[in-house]
Design a protein that fits this description.
Blueprint (H helix, E strand, L loop, with lengths): L1 H11 L12 H53 L9 H24 L5 H28 L3 H40 L1
Helix pairs in contact: 3-5, 4-5
């Protein structure tokens, strides 16, 4: 009963006398209500005119986007190259292939009769690594771009570069030994 007494005490000091709204209030209210509906109807009418066009434009944009992605990814995915995985892997592949090409050119330029056996052996090993890379490309297609296959492909590139660097250092050693022997024979 105490709770009820407190509530009654709260409302005792407040004047709850409600006055009637001014004359014409109802008509003004209905007029405002109707004018708001008219502008809302006008906005709805404008929206309803553009809605089909916007819908068609959005659908076309979506179709072009999806078709472009499917065509681009399909073309890259069928190659099985490292570049088909991501833009970063494309850069990695381009870096390694250009490095390998440059080192092969350098080896061919400094190749001599004394080093031809080393170069032939290196080229045979390069063919084996190329064949292994071709298998890895197939594995990449079949595995759905498995990280282990990607790592193996990068490792294959690194093995080729290491092989070519070893051949270059062996050729340089042979050339320096030849120059030393030649200098000793002159004296």
């Amino acid at each position: 009963m105490m709770k009820n007494d407190n509530i009654e005490d709260l409302f005792r000091g407040i004047n709850l006398d409600h006055s009637e709204p001014k004359e014409g209030h109802r008509e003004r209210f209905l007029e405002k209500l109707n004018s708001g509906n008219a502008s809302a109807k006008q906005k709805t009418k404008v929206r309803s005119l553009w809605a089909p066009f916007i819908g068609v434009a959005a659908a076309l944009a979506l179709v072009f986007f999806l078709a472009g992605n499917i065509l681009n990814s399909g073309a890259l995915d069928k190659s099985g190259e490292l570049a088909s995985v991501s833009p970063e892997m494309k850069q990695t592949q381009e870096f390694y292939t250009s490095l390998i090409e440059n080192e092969l050119k350098e080896i061919q330029e400094i190749n001599s009769p004394e080093t031809s056996a080393i170069v032939k052996d290196a080229l045979k090993q390069m063919e084996k690594l190329d064949a292994e890379y071709e298998k890895l490309k197939t594995d990449l297609l079949n595995s759905g771009k498995d990280n282990r296959v990607i790592h193996a492909m990068i490792n294959n590139f690194q093995q080729r570069i290491d092989l070519l660097n070893n051949v270059l250092s062996q050729i340089e050693e042979i050339r320096s030994i030849k120059n030393q022997n030649h200098e000793n024979n002159i004296i």
